[in-house]
Structures are given as structure tokens and as C-alpha cells.
């Protein structure tokens, strides 16, 4: 099951209280906290202070994410992630986003699942690196054999690119979003490692407090 240092009768914080990987998992299998579903037309986001899933905003358009959408616990996008994106001025200062494809319908968010990393999209949003890792639900009966981005139909990635390039659109307002660079498993693992290092650099003191 999911990694816990000890029994805790209180709900764990999805960002700080969970781990990026379950015990003994290979490096390409990560734990994911799901914030949004493909059916959602409201933008849900984790409140970083309380750990509760909150309504960020109703979407202005009919666009909805084409995959399960969430983040990898104990990751953070700061200096190390920005260093992997030369065209960005900085990173977005959030946990690392991840999109997970599942053949079977998952109809609720605020859950944790295991997913196999196959690639990612280097998104630059108003000068900020905001990578989107692409993964497959671990054990999925249709997509479970995928090991790299090339194992997925092109349309899977194209739909993600379209969603992230348009989901902030507003009439009369220009947006500056780039989603041109798609990368495979090896580069995705480097981005995850960089985000884990950023988390340790910025929030490692929280983990030290827990062990003292």
C-alpha cells in the first residue's frame, strides 16, 4: 500500500505527507494526487496550507482536461526545474503537475494512485517553467504496456497540448503559453528528479521536523 512511516489518525497532507514513490517502486512509478477529472469544467486545486481540495475557478470555456490531472507529492518547481528549461525565466513555484491516462473511468478526485511515467510536455506560461509529466495508470489493461511517449498515439499528446495552450484563454486577452517541446521518459525522470531536489531545498525542513 502507500508508504507511511507510522500510523497517523489524522489525514496526511497530500503534498507534504505523502511520498513521490511507494516503498520499493521503480523510479518510473510515481504516486499521484488527483485534483481534476476529464469531466471537470471547474478548476480544482489543492489548498497548500490546509491540504484540502478547493475550487480555484470555474472554467470560462468548455475545455476540460483530457486525462486525470494532479501532482506528484514532495515535488516543487523552482531553480532546478527552471535550469532544465532555458527559455523560462523561472519556474512556477508549484508541485510538479502530472497527467495520467486510464482506460477505465475514474469518477472522483481527491485520491492517490500509482502511475508509470512515459514522458512530458515542457510548458512555458508567461515565462515560467510549468512542466506537465505524462503517465499511465499503473496496471492499466489497455495502456499499461506503454514505457515511453512513443508508445502512445500522437492524439493523446496533441489533446494535452491543445488543452494547456487554451485553458486560460479569455476574450480580448492575450496569453503567452508555449507547449511545443514534448519529451520522453528519460527527460521526464530528470524533471521529476529536479523537482524533488527543489522540494528538498525549499521544504526539506518540514521533513526534518517530523523526525526530530
From TrEMBL:
Molecular function in Gene Ontology: inorganic diphosphate phosphatase activity; magnesium ion binding
Gene3D superfamilies tied to this protein: Inorganic pyrophosphatase (3.90.80.10)
Enzyme class at the top of the EC tree: hydrolase
Record's keyword terms, sorted: Hydrolase, Magnesium, Metal-binding
GO terms classed as biological process: phosphate-containing compound metabolic process
Assigned GO CC terms: cytoplasm
Names of the cofactor(s): Mg(2+)
The EC number(s) this enzyme carries: 3.6.1.1
PANTHER family: INORGANIC PYROPHOSPHATASE
Name the record gives this protein: inorganic diphosphatase
Organism name: Chromatocurvus halotolerans
Amino acid at each position: 500500500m502507500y508508504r507511511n512511516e507510522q500510523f497517523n489518525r489524522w489525514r496526511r497532507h497530500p503534498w507534504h505527507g505523502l511520498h513521490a514513490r511507494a516503498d520499493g517502486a521503480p523510479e518510473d512509478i510515481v504516486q499521484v494526487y488527483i485534483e481534476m477529472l476529464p469531466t471537470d469544467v471547474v478548476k480544482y486545486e489543492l489548498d497548500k496550507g490546509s491540504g484540502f481540495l478547493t475550487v480555484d475557478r470555474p472554467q470560462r470555456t468548455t475545455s476540460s482536461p483530457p486525462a486525470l490531472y494532479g501532482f506528484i507529492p514532495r515535488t516543487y518547481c523552482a531553480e532546478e526545474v527552471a535550469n532544465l528549461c532555458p527559455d523560462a525565466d523561472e519556474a512556477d513555484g508549484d508541485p510538479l503537475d502530472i497527467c495520467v491516462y486510464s482506460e477505465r473511468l475514474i469518477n472522483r478526485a481527491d485520491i492517490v494512485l500509482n502511475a508509470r511515467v512515459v514522458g512530458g510536455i515542457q510548458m512555458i506560461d508567461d515565462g515560467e517553467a510549468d512542466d506537465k509529466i505524462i503517465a499511465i495508470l499503473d496496471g492499466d489493461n489497455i495502456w499499461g504496456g506503454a514505457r515511453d511517449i512513443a508508445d502512445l498515439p500522437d492524439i493523446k499528446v496533441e489533446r494535452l497540448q491543445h488543452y494547456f495552450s487554451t485553458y486560460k484563454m479569455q476574450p480580448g486577452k492575450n496569453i503567452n503559453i508555449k507547449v511545443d517541446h514534448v519529451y520522453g521518459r528519460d527527460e521526464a525522470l530528470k524533471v521529476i528528479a529536479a523537482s524533488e531536489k527543489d522540494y528538498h531545498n525549499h521544504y526539506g525542513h518540514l521533513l526534518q521536523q517530523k523526525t526530530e
